[in-house]
Task: structure prediction
Amino acid sequence: MIPSRGEQREDAVLRATLELLAEIGYGSLTMDAVAARAKASKATIYRRWSGKAQLVTAAIERHTAAADHPAPDTGTLRGDLLGLLRPMRDRLTGESAALVLGLLTAMRDDATLAAAVRARLIGVKRDAFAPALRRAAGRGEIAAGADHELIAEVASALLFSRLFVTGEPLDDAFLGRLADAVILPLVHGATP
Result:
């Protein structure tokens, strides 16, 4: 199905917003800059979004919706974990890295923006682990009741630390160590 002119215009505006966020950050982002990058008028943008926070929220939601993938079912918890960690790593080391860095400071000062980022960028990761853990519990690999939110937070924090703090590789060997030395012991230590 061919997108309508309005859908094409919206896509161009949201794509321009994400590009500018990654390049110059939230604080320097202006509606003028988005309009120029998207080749749209400011009036067109303001008809759809009332301000910068709403526009950025929509762009984040579009970006993360496009990146959402169902948890893989490999038949083992370890395989499912690696199937979740690889795309998380790939998104983080790709365009999401610059996007996240562009938003971190702004989140402290804008509660609406912070809520949107937490719900989408972080919430999606938290929810991604739940199906894999339920399947593992159903297969008898783990006890039911593992804290998928804590597991996602720990995994995300270690990926983030490697990329932005230590600069150490985020290769498949590290993902295997993350699964084997951190996540699986955390899951096996869970109590329902």
Q: What stands out?
A: The chain has two domains: 5-61, 71-188. The longest helix spans residues 111-138. The chain has nine helices and no strands.
